[in-house]
């Protein structure tokens, strides 16, 4: 299971620090590889400077499946808050890693546990903490 990175990624400095701490705790489980790579390749920006169309932690977005055109709401969260049936996707999940740092219009791609390819287009930003002045969530 791996995320496929193509578009440029933008992360807030606070998301970077928190995710790095999370990864340090997860390394023994082997679930950190794709996210480690994303962190190494991303552009870091201060929270007040992040564009309002960038998927940051706790952003709520509408995505459209590239194969079926099915739309669903996703909230990118930390593992403790994950509830996939309700749309709360952990940043450690392949889909979560694939969404982090992308913008509206970008396509997130990842490989599922059975080797199947997945792709969703980010079509709408419903909420981004930084855009509402929350620089600490």
From TrEMBL:
InterPro entries: GreA/GreB_C_sf, Tscrpt_elong_fac_GreA/B_C, Tscrpt_elong_fac_GreA/B_fam
Spans traversing the lipid bilayer: none
Superkingdom per UniProt: Bacteria
GO biological process, one term: DNA-templated transcription elongation
Protein biosynthesis recorded as keyword: yes
Keyword terms, alphabetized: Elongation factor, Protein biosynthesis
Keyword Protein biosynthesis: yes
Coiled-coil segments on the chain, per record: none
MF terms in GO: DNA binding; RNA polymerase binding; translation elongation factor activity
Residue intervals of the Transcription elongation factor GreA/GreB C-terminal domain: 53-124
Name this protein carries in UniProt: Transcription elongation factor GreAB
Annotated source species: Ramlibacter pinisoli
Phylogenetic lineage: Bacteria, Pseudomonadati, Pseudomonadota, Betaproteobacteria, Burkholderiales
């Amino acid at each position: 299971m791996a995320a496929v990175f193509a578009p440029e990624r933008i992360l807030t400095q606070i998301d970077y620090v928190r995710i790095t701490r999370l990864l340090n705790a997860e390394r023994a489980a082997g679930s950190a590889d794709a996210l480690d790579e994303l962190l190494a390749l991303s552009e870091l920006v201060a929270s007040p400077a992040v564009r309002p169309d960038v998927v940051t932690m706790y952003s709520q977005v509408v995505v459209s499946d590239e194969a079926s055109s099915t739309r669903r709401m996703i909230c990118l969260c930390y593992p403790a808050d994950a509830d996939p049936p309700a749309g709360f996707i952990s940043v450690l999940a392949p889909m979560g890693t694939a969404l982090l740092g992308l913008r509206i219009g970008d396509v997130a791609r990842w490989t599922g546990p059975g080797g199947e390819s997945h792709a969703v287009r980010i079509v709408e930003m419903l909420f981004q903490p930084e855009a509402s002045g929350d620089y600490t969530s």
